[in-house]
């Protein structure tokens, strides 16, 4: 099945990475393949794009495209970018430390948002899940078996939800009567205790928080950035598109710290974006999912031996 995902800020990412024929690029979040295919076209037959995703469905879809179109310079791998070093070293060890670009386009693809098996949306009647890599606990486990306090902490930390305690209590009371099975059921419980808002669906923050917790999104990102920099050659570019302030903060702080170290053991970066770039108004109009995107990029300036 074709992807429903429209790449966000693709032109800006390509411009910052500026790939040349023969380059090696890692697309850490292949998704619908929007970035990977554009990079593959730029690096040409002598180059290579390693495209990672921890969603097997995304990898299968791209593999199919790969076979149909004979894209010899695109290599797909099912992997969590948290283990980027292992993924690069096992699939193309000769390119470790030689990447011209490593990109992250975080969060969810439209394919995942629409996938009833994942039940990401508060409108979904699918069983509570959200677990993209299908490993560890899913949203059903968290909602029905975590303590009230643990749930409140998840909603507050990952959703910045001010009513976290009240929502966690309502969930506890509801699940004592019967287990909460679907995304739509959870959304109804949350909506019942939330004051109405004109901007957001009352369950938006709770769903964001659950998704981040189930997939350990912030842990993955924090673990991936240092290895990504080590995988770049001097002059290589790391570019990250994030979609909420928690992710953007991790990237901003990491880039800032690395751009200040000039002679430490780790490679140092020079910022290419002092402030994050945001999508043009025309892109947001055409693809409203782009509206919260922030793009930060930096260039590796020191070579270390690792
Ligand atoms: C916004 S989409 C990427 C879209 C892609 N740039 C495109 O143009 O089609 C995000 C993708 O990153 C993947 N992803 C998120 N976290 C990941 C992780 N820790 N490891 C590997 N893939 C991840 C998701 O499964 C999803 O397919």
SSE blueprint:
Layout: H1 10-17, E1 24-27, H2 34-43, E2 48-53, H3 56-69, E3 74-78, H4 84-91, E4 99-105, H5 110-113, H6 139-145, H7 148-159, H8 164-177, H9 183-193, H10 204-215, H11 217-231, E5 232-242, H12 245-260, E6 269-271, H13 281-286, E7 294-300
Parallel strand pairs: 1-2, 1-4, 2-3, 4-5
Antiparallel strand pairs: 5-7, 6-7
The structure holds S-adenosylmethionine.
S-adenosylmethionine (SAM) binds next to helix 2 and strand 2.
How would you explain this protein's 3D organization?
With 306 residues, the chain is α/β, with parallel strands linked by helices. The protein has 2 domains: 10-111 and 217-300, Vaccinia Virus protein VP39 (Rossmann fold, 3-Layer(aba) Sandwich), CATH 3.40.50; 116-215, DNA polymerase, domain 1 (Orthogonal Bundle). The chain contains 13 helices and 7 strands. The chain has helices at 10-17, 34-43, 56-69, 84-91, 110-113, 139-145, 148-159, 164-177, 183-193, 204-215, 217-231, 245-260, 281-286, and strands spanning 24-27, 48-53, 74-78, 99-105, 232-242, 269-271, 294-300. It has a 7-stranded mixed β-sheet, sandwiched between helices. Helix 7 crosses helix 10 and helix 11 (217-231) packs parallel to helix 12 (245-260). S-adenosylmethionine is lined by residues 5, 7, 29, 31-35, 52-55, 58, 80-82, 105, 107-109, 132, 220. It is found in: Cytoplasm.
